[in-house]
Specification:
This protein is an alpha+beta fold. Helices cover 39% and strands 18% of the residues. The protein contains eight helices and eight strands; from the N terminus they run H-H-H-E-E-H-H-H-E-E-H-E-E-E-H-E. Helix 1 packs across helix 2, helix 2 crosses helix 3 and helix 4 packs across helix 5. The radius of gyration is 19 Å and the shape is globular.
Length: 222
């Protein structure tokens, strides 16, 4: 069914998947903000997606929208395309990690399953993209992803960065400069209860990060 879906439909399914975490519904306002589309247009689109055969979403007025099993499979296929492309662009073509998201956004809709399989094989069947996000496997099973934010840690906790949000190129460039990349180990030295700033040690140096940064870094405790 995926090959018959429009680009707009795929973008909606991917956005709903991203917003409907832990079984929660995605609101039309959140979808409108994420897709940069008027809320009224979003409502009209999700009503159409709820009426496809089979339905791609479950929509209840004033209760938001969730993906049906069919819609979730379609979303995971697009996410697999996207993250494999990001990894290929970064590892094989030399794109920096702040460039790959937008390139993958354009390419994810047009590559064939044969091309996807070839990329996967050439890369050695990667499980995570350059930002640490898990890649759905060939059966479209999504590996568990890190969900603990750096902002929740307190001294003297230690942690390893597992993934970072990938949609802000400026943030990614800053994180790269500070060595705040997946696999990096850090120690929490201090926490300011007034502004939420964290002082942490990484690579033998201390840096201070505010919530605008620490909220977008996901870790596992070391």
């Amino acid at each position: 069914m995926k090959k018959h879906l429009t680009r707009a439909t795929k973008d909606y399914l991917k956005a709903i998947y991203a917003l409907s975490v832990n079984g929660l519904s995605a609101s039309t306002n959140d979808l409108a903000k994420r897709l940069n589309i008027a809320a009224a247009s979003v409502t009209g689109m999700i009503k159409r997606l709820a009426q496809t055969n089979p339905p791609l979403v479950d929509y209840r007025k004033h209760h938001g929208v969730t993906l049906t099993p069919t819609g979730e499979q379609a979303a995971l296929e697009i996410i697999r395309h996207h993250r494999l492309l990001e990894t290929y662009l970064h590892d094989s073509l030399g794109f920096s990690w702040d460039e790959v998201h937008e390139e993958a956004e354009r390419l994810e809709h047009v590559i064939s399953e044969k091309f996807e399989a070839r990329i996967d094989k050439v890369l050695g069947h990667p499980t995570h993209d350059p930002h640490g996000d898990p890649i759905p496997d060939l059966n479209l099973v999504m590996p568990q992803k890190a969900s603990t934010r750096l902002s929740t840690l307190r001294p003297p906790q230690e942690a390893i960065i597992e993934r970072v949000n990938d949609e802000d190129g400026n943030l990614l460039r800053y994180l790269q400069e500070k060595s705040l990349v997946p696999g990096s180990k850090l120690k929490i030295r201090a926490h300011s209860p007034f502004d939420g700033n964290l002082t942490l040690e990484i690579n033998g140096e201390e840096i201070i990060l505010g919530p605008a940064v620490t909220h977008h870094i996901f870790i596992k405790e070391a």
